[in-house]
Design goal:
GO terms for molecular function: DNA binding; metal ion binding. In the C-terminal section; belongs to the transposase 35 family. This is Putative transposase. This protein is an alpha+beta fold. It has a domain of about 170 residues. Helix content is about 40%, strand content about 20%. It is built from 9 helices and 14 strands. A 6-stranded antiparallel β-sheet has the order 2-5-6-1-4-3. Helix 2 crosses helix 3, helix 4 packs antiparallel against helix 5 and helix 5 packs across helix 8. The longest helix has about 35 residues. The relative contact order is 0.10.
Length: about 375
């Protein structure tokens, strides 16, 4: 069984320089492969594979740009093969036309497989990466030192560097079974992040003072960055530093605030999943949400995107697989909010402003979200995800 462990690195300045150079080379080769095939595609020529382009890089392009050799050969080839995969998905109609990668997006990864015995050796506080040597870890003891490491991937987020290590672990550990028979229904929303059928409510973290304060700082930095671009482009003024170092510093401040917001939201979702796991239910029932359709509402699109419903679902899936809990998913058209959790009567009209559900048949009165969570727990038709 393969398991991934992601943690933050604490590299030296020399190692940071080499990591950034390797990411730049991988981005350059990715864009070169796209540009080369775009030109062939417009001329009506056949599509060139990643293996053939890798030979072209090694024999011809590396002579024109000798600095390509700074990056490891496996990392270069992985970037080319990723570009080939993007093209294949485009031709199959599975994704849109691949686009060139930009430096500011920081979406380029550096891949290192284990080719030699001396590669990817893990100790408590450090890991040995090919072409980089021993690199310190910020979180000590997280990556297991006894497992067999297969590969690793380096990523950058703002001014931080992370490593994802793929480790082969033993499958002898059996899933933990619970003797509890009662399950949990989970209703997701915007007013409250999640409402459980047992009455537990998780607030929307995006309404907290910490998130609002960070978003206010982000807005201020974005306006400052916008002004710098406006001075340089429209008014014809020159920046104080001709190299544009002030703009780069402002971009870094914006990136750090975006990363901080993402970490705060992800940590809260992990907290919600851990609290659900402590309840030890026999099953968890959630509703399949049409997030793409919900995002079309321009008034609620930002609030929905900030909640991260898909990430929560993946965390729930991993937790349920690990603990042996059954994760159920009901149809998106299941009327969880309109059904009475007491008698089962369906209310035909229920506006979004009605936060208290009142049954027209039995008179049962309950909070709207709690009523939906109880209906999800009692659902008879569902799909088992674990």
């Amino acid at each position: 069984m393969l398991k991934a462990y992601k943690t933050e690195l604490n590299p030296t300045p020399e190692q940071i320089t080499k990591i950034v150079q390797s990411m730049g080379i991988c981005r350059f080769l990715y864009n070169q492969y796209l540009g080369y095939n775009f030109a062939r595609y417009e001329q009506g020529e056949t599509f060139i594979s990643g293996y053939d382009f890798d030979k072209y890089v090694n024999h011809e392009l590396s002579k024109q740009y000798p600095w390509i050799k700074i990056c490891g050969s496996k990392a270069r080839k992985k970037a080319i093969m990723n570009a080939e995969t993007a093209f294949k998905r485009f031709f199959k109609g599975q994704s849109r036309r691949p686009r060139f990668k930009k430096k500011k997006n920081q979406d380029v990864k550096v891949y290192f497989p284990k080719n030699n015995k001396g590669d990817l050796i893990v100790e408590r506080h450090r890991i040995k990466i090919p072409t980089l040597g021993w690199v310190r870890l910020k979180e000590k003891g997280y990556i297991p030192t006894t497992g067999k490491v297969k590969s690793c991937t380096l990523t950058q987020q703002a001014d931080r560097f992370y490593i994802s290590v793929l480790v082969e672990v033993s499958t002898s550990e059996s899933k933990e079974k619970h003797s509890y028979v009662e399950g949990i229904g989970m209703d997701l929303g915007i007013k409250h992040f999640a409402v459980l059928s047992n009455g537990q409510v998780f607030k929307n973290i995006n309404r907290s003072s910490a998130i609002k304060r960070t978003e206010k700082r982000l807005k201020r930095e974005q306006r400052a960055l916008s002004r710098k671009y406006e001075f340089r482009k429209k008014r014809g003024e020159t920046t104080a530093t001709k190299s544009g170092s002030n703009i780069r510093k402002n971009i870094l401040r914006v990136q750090k605030l975006h990363a901080r917001l993402a970490r705060m939201r992800e940590a809260y979702r992990a907290f919600v999943v851990s609290m659900i796991a402590k309840a030890k239910p026999s099953y968890i029932t959630i509703e399949k949400l049409n997030v793409q359709g919900m995002m079309k509402n321009r008034h609620l699109s930002k609030s929905i995107a900030d909640q991260g419903f898909y990430d929560l679902k993946m965390k729930l899936l991993n937790m349920c697989t690990k603990l042996g809990i059954e994760l159920r998913e009901v149809n998106p058209f299941y009327p969880s909010s309109k059904l009475c959790s007491s008698c089962g009567h369906k209310k035909e009209k229920l506006s979004l402003s009605e936060r208290i559900f009142q049954c027209e048949s039995c008179g049962h009165t309950l909070d709207r979200d709690l009523n939906a969570a109880m209906n999800l727990m009692q659902a008879k038709e569902y799909v088992v995800l674990t």
